[in-house]
Amino acid sequence: MLNYPFWVNDFDRVKDYKQKYPLVSKIFNYPTAFWYGERNGREMKDLDKSLKRLFKRTLPGLPILVIYNLPNRDIGQYSKGGAKTKESYLNFIECFAKGIGELSPIIIFEPDALPHTGEMNKQERDYRLDLMKAGLEVLTSQSNAHVYIDIGHSNWLSPKEASDLIGIVTNDRVRGFAVNVSNYRTSKESLNWSLKVCEHRPNDYFVIDTSRNGLGPHGNDWCNPPGRALGEPPTCDTGHEKCDAFVWVKVPGESDGKTNGGPRAGRFWGEMAEELVKNTSWIS
Q: What per-residue confidence (pLDDT) applies to 42?
């Protein structure tokens, strides 16, 4: 069983939200992940130093980190971006591992990257899978992180398809996989699906993103669906040996993209954040 020292932010991650959207403060009483990746063609400078500064602030607690930087990230959709070349990507991973040092944070590796290979031609697919495998080799050989490869959600791939994709890129030092990142499938559905994946991968463990799944999905709408709620707060007490943790990977209140009235992907949307809190029965 994983025993993770979750760290709760002690600084405002969103400028001035407390003044305009005071209810949103309740979200940031819980640990939320930090995402790392290039956007608008800007490389991340001094990444290792940035991570070391973050850990200096959080220890003995640890944040949850997300690596989201593959070339052609999000296959050109709302969250497009990422490294431009194989060389720059692997350099990014090396700097990331250096910044972690001897610590063991949870790392969610490349959301949607594996499921998206189903929409690529063979050349694009092989390039991505080879690069993911190389990146994971660097990350797991040069750090002690708990690495979980993102594999989409329970309404995307079959358990066998998910297992096969994970098997192409993983290695013996990878802890397992992550499900439901930035999505809304229920924890029960995500858990049952993940356990079926583990039937094919008996040595793997998994984490579930519960940040916005409190009321489950709104049909198949993945981009800012209305009327959603926060899910279970982050914990390692999941009640299931194979499920290491419920985690808030997607920061509740950040937009999925320019649909249903939302701003660009990743930008904080105070109105939606307050709606998530208002619709959550367990939050005080």
A: 63
